[in-house]
Amino acid sequence: MSIDDKIKQDLAEQAKELDRLMQQQDGLAGYLKTGFVSGISWVMKLSYVMAVVLTAIIFWCGYQFVVASPEQQLFWGVWLLLAFQAQVATKLWIFMETNRNHTAREIRRLELRLRQSEMA
User: Rounded to an integer, what distance in angstroms lies between the CA atom of residue 67 and that of residue 59?
Assistant: First the structure.
């Protein structure tokens, strides 16, 4: 077998492996589950609870802003903006932590494949 044939065979095997990996995608739900895999999954659970509570606070402050007298609208408007900013920060942290866990998992998977290919 020539070196060209060996390269073509290796590339075909890699293409099959990539196709198999692409079919394993779980979608958004599977991606978000990777955030709970780390050692600080309790913080992730707490942040999801915080996001839900902040959503309720946003609706409450928004309602109060709409029905408040003109003198009170500034007060409720500031609380509405603060609650919104807190929710944005919480959701950003959730997605950054999920992305970090997902990337770390992919790196470990790649390391395992490299070790297996070295042994073969």
Answer: 12
Q: Mean pLDDT throughout 82-106?
A: 91
Q: Averaged over 44-52, what is the pLDDT?
A: 94
How many other C-beta atoms lie within 10 A of the C-beta of residue 14? 11
Q: Please determine, for residue 19, whether its predicted confidence score (pLDDT) is greater than 70.
A: no
Residue 17: domain span: 1-27
In order, the DSSP letters of 39-101 are TTHHHHHHHHHHHHHHHHHHHHHHHHHHHS-TTTHHHHHHHHHHHHHHHHHHHHHHHHHHHHH
Q: Tokens 């866990």 map to which residue? A: 101
Counting the structural domains of the chain, the total is 2
Mean pLDDT, rounded, for 37-42 = 80
